[in-house]
């Protein structure tokens, strides 16, 4: 009898250029030898250089799709990418946890695209904290960490966020320490230095990283 594949699920946006979102996630899952499932939270029109538009999927449609996937496959980890609001995120997270409290949820809190489009205009800090308590890991870059808190220091922001869930602070935007990430977990901060020197910007790099993490959880 064939061994049942390890299944992971991505809830993210569709990027027709393939650099970010669901297509990037599925390609990453494939590389890490897990069976990737996907549900679209948004249809975007973008390239690696420019963002044109976004059409959000209704919460009800996404939740119905989640029900089908959870009832049809043994899913251990779920990744959530772009969403229009933290209220939307809260509904997704609460619904998933009510269905299966053991599922680990990883959130890539994409607030602004690499090409400068703002996905979320306002952030309710109290609502954010209530959501993060049910999340296993968030993977903000430095700017996102600052936007999610009331501090001007990204490391302090990550530390504050880690009071509610594990935090991987991505260092791709750190001009002083390019590519150096910081993992905040169980009250500790672990520095993760890159092994490559020729680092360059890539559209959708955050999607690929979070999908790789999900694959290995």
Topology:
Elements: E1 7-14, H1 21-31, E2 35-46, E3 51-56, H2 59-72, E4 75-80, H3 86-99, E5 104-107, H4 125-132, E6 137-138, H5 142-147, H6 154-161, E7 166-169, E8 181-185, E9 188-192, H7 205-216
Parallel strand pairs: 1-2, 1-4, 4-5, 5-6, 6-7
Antiparallel strand pairs: 2-3, 7-8, 8-9
Helix pairs in contact: 1-7, 2-3, 3-4
Write a structural description:
The protein has 217 residues and is an alpha/beta fold. It has a domain at 7-141 and 201-216: Ribokinase (UDP-N-acetylmuramoyl-L-alanine:D-glutamate ligase, 3-Layer(aba) Sandwich), CATH 3.40.1190. The protein contains 7 helices and 9 strands. The mean pLDDT is 89.
Q: For this entry, what is the oligomeric state of its chains? A: single chain
The CATH topology name of one domain reads UDP-N-acetylmuramoyl-L-alanine:D-glutamate ligase
Mean pLDDT: 89
Question: Over the alpha carbons, how many angstroms does the gyration radius reach?
Answer: 16 Å
CATH class of one domain: Alpha Beta
**Assigned CATH superfamily of one domain:** Ribokinase
Proportion of residues in extended strands? 15-25%
Low-confidence stretches: none
Biggest sheet overview:
9 strands, mixed
How many strand elements? 9
Q: How would you describe the shape?
A: globular
Helix content: 25-40%
SSE order: EHEEHEHEHEHHEEEH
The end-to-end span amounts to: 25 Å
Note the total helix count: 7
Strand order of the largest sheet: 3-2-1-4-5-6-7-8-9
In CATH terms, what is the architecture of one domain? 3-Layer(aba) Sandwich
Structural class: alpha/beta
